[in-house]
Amino acid sequence: MSASPKTSPPPPLGKDLVGLEPLSASQIALILDTATPFKEVSTRRIKKVPVLRGKTVVNLFFEPSTRTRLSFDFAEKRLSADTVHVASSDSSVTKGETLVDTARNLEAMQIDMVVLRHWSAGAAAFLAERIPSNVINAGDGAHEHPTQALLDLFTLRDHFGAIEGLKVCILGDILHSRVARSNIYGLAKMGAEVAVCAPRTLLPAGVEDMGARVFRRVGEAVEWADALNVLRLQLERMRGGFVPSLREYNRVFGVTQERLARAPKPLLILHPGPMNRGVEIDSAVADGPHSVILRQVTNGIAVRMAVLYLLAGGAPSAAESEAARA
Amino acid sequence: MPDAGGARLWIRGGRVVDPAQGLDMRADVLVEDGRIAAVGEGLAPQGDSGGAGEGGRVLDATGLVMAPGFVDPHAHLCEPGGEHRETIASGARAAAAGGYTALCAMPSADPVVDDPAAVGFAVAAGRRAGGARVFPAAALSVGCRGEQLTEFGEVVAAGAVALAEGKAVRSTLLMRRALDYAQSFGVPVLGHCEDPWLAEGGVMHEGVVSTRLGLRGKPAVAEETGVARDVALARATGGRLHVQRVSTAAACRLLRRAKNQGVRVTAEATPHHLLLNHEALEGYGTEHKVDPPLRPAADAKALRQALANGVIDCIATDHSPRHYDEKEQAFDDAPFGVVGLETAFAVLHTELVLGGVLGLPTLIERMSPGPAGALGLPGGSLEPGRPADVVLLDPAHRWTIDPSAFLSKSRNTPFAGFRAVGRAVRTLVAGETVWSLED
Asked: Among residues A6, A89, A287, B129, which one has the fewest Cβ atoms lying within 10 Å of its Cβ?
């Protein structure tokens, strides 16, 4: 039996996963709960359950990505979906075809789900409105990257037991970061306190109005937080004049052993990757005992399996038994 | 019913609103040989003869407002090079359908209108159009590349009424030269006043909405610094500057101060900046992607006040036709711009006049003599001797804006489905009907 039940109640997440902003706390909790049984699948000798057998999933990537693309691919394959990858370098996108035409062509090939990574904010919502397939946002410009935030939430919950009441500070290039936005929405909805810390040049206008406290100095953030989510500082930001040099960025805003040593308690360290060691984070911190960076990667597959399962019409209550099937 | 049957035409029984003469009264208008001959009570023949016995015809305007035809200081007609979006003919007819009898066409064609031949083409195509009169603006610099001034003397002799770059003039020196040099030809420089570095890459207003949506913002201060620079240059040179599509409260404050100090500056605002705000971008609707971007509600409110008190001299549509598939793209990829010629009066009358922000005579002032004065265009008054460019307005007409009914070739409006009260029902250019709702 596939994931579609015979009498279908309204799908618990709706048709698409465009972002965490439109989701409720209970929907987010449902994804995290559903991910738990699926996490076990990846530890088996035969890492496969027949949950999405016969479903066709297209991973449509208009931007380069290694980690997210691989993670979705593993999640899809471990659920037995048939997957196709379309990357901007080898698609008709480079021949000037618009997003909507690309999508309609895929649709004409009778697919079931699209995982979209696009450079333009709003691209996932744009596509979701125009095609009947389920659309999962794998990052749209500086807007949202919901599955990354979900895996961050899963990792935090796994470690602390609960998200409510946690103090989480996101450090780094908040201005250009979809990970930051999705995390701010997700953490706030789940009852955590959220802060951001960055030079003012890398903070977006009105970020306080999104419910995030702002720290100007890493020292203040470290004193306050239970966990730090450290974002990559892209090298282009220096050329764009947002920071004068990477060396100074590391000195003033980098997450270093010395700074963490001054924290009143050990802080959990998250990083969505890929890391610039020695820029936003020191190797000793990234590889240290409180880093959960690789656990994030493992959890990413489980969370994405849960999202694929729920969007494909899988019953939340059946997740455990579905995941248990060999 | 053709109007050209007789040399005389009486428009009878309407409310004449002519702000240039301070008129607001029930009166008849007599048109002879395409010009206003007289405005007064009891001019028209009475009865149902239709004026035949008097050597002319009568147009009944009972229940309507007679006003000088609207003048749009800022429209993009896309010809040559963008005929799938609009042509000079379709744009001029769309203008007439919105009550406009004249418009200033921006040089933003492809190739840009930067030489006398291109200006001459626009003038000739405008004459053939059979709609509103078309007055072209020429590019300020060759190819709008911001390097070398166009031949102002030549393009003005060919019919250009103003100089416009269609984007910020990056070089302060070139802008100064333009404001200096244009003075020999009596035409204004139309300023796209914005700091190009602060605004670079922005697709909407920089604020909490752009932050939430993850879109790159243009900060309000980009407009403030741009207006400050160009107003300073206008003051220093004595040149005539018309600030296009003001969108911020800060720019209004700068303009008020400049006007109080006697700087030769005028300014326009668009219906969309007056009535909408950046929250309309939620959902990434590309029909709200405009440049400058829709601003917060407080800016729109300041603009409405500036329009009411005259700091903003006139309404501009910034009519920017886009083919439907151009707007059917991810937000970053879609072009800026909305059409506005056929909706400007209706939405402004509904929201501003019926909303109590300003009176109908003031709205008419900002849509007719205001823009005509700012750009030095003919029209804007029903004074005897002027061309009979007249609009008949039905202020009680209820209708729903339906883009599929537009005469414009493009449909990109943020006002689709807007329930409007008030509409231009007949437009006359030189005494001839160029558009009527009945036809």
From this structure: A6
Reported as a single tens digit per residue, the pLDDT across A189-201 is: 999 999 999 999 9
Q: Let me know if B398 is exposed, middle or buried by CB neighbors in 10 A (0-12, 13-18, 19+).
A: exposed
The reported pTM is 0.93
Q: Which burial class, exposed, middle or buried, applies to B419 when counting CB atoms under 10 A from its CB (0-12, 13-18, 19+)?
A: exposed
Domain of B46, in residue numbers: 8-66+387-397+419-436
Which positions ≥6 away from A174 have C-beta within 8 Å? A180, A196, A198, A202, A203, A204, A207, A231
Between CA A115 and CA B105 the distance in angstroms is 45
Neighbouring-strand partners of residue B105:
B75, B136
Q: Which of residues 215-244 of B touch A (CB under 8 A)?
A: 215-217, 219
Question: Which residues of chain B does A99 touch, with a Cβ-Cβ cutoff of 8 Å?
Answer: 329-330, 333
Report if residue B405 sits inside a domain: no
- List the one residue out of B430, B421, B371, B395 whose CA is nearest residue B61: B395
pLDDT of residue A87: 84
Known catalytic residue at A117: yes
ipTM: 0.91
Assess whether B20 and B150 both reside in one domain: no
Pick from B330, B272, B295, B329: nearest CA to B209:
B295
Statement to judge: residues B107 and B133 lie in one domain: yes
Is B251 within the bounds of a domain? yes
Q: How far is A320 from chain B (nearest CA, A)?
A: 35
According to the model, what pLDDT value does residue A94 have?
56
Whether residue A231 contacts residue A280, with contact meaning beta carbons closer than 8 Å, is answered with yes
Mutate to test the interface with B, among A126, A174, A237 (most CBs of B within 10 A): A126
Co-location of B325 and B310 in the same domain? yes
Q: Please give the residue of chain A at the shortest CA–CA distance from B216.
A: A142
| B 321-340 residues inside an 8 A Cβ radius of A | 325, 328-333
pLDDT tens digits, residue range A23-38? Answer: 999 999 999 999 999 9
The DSSP output letter for B200 is T
Percent of chain A with pLDDT over 70: 94
Instruction: Return d(Cα B95, Cα B408) in angstroms, integer.
Output: 8
Q: Is A217 a catalytic residue?
A: no
CA dist., res. B128 & res. B82, Å (int):
18
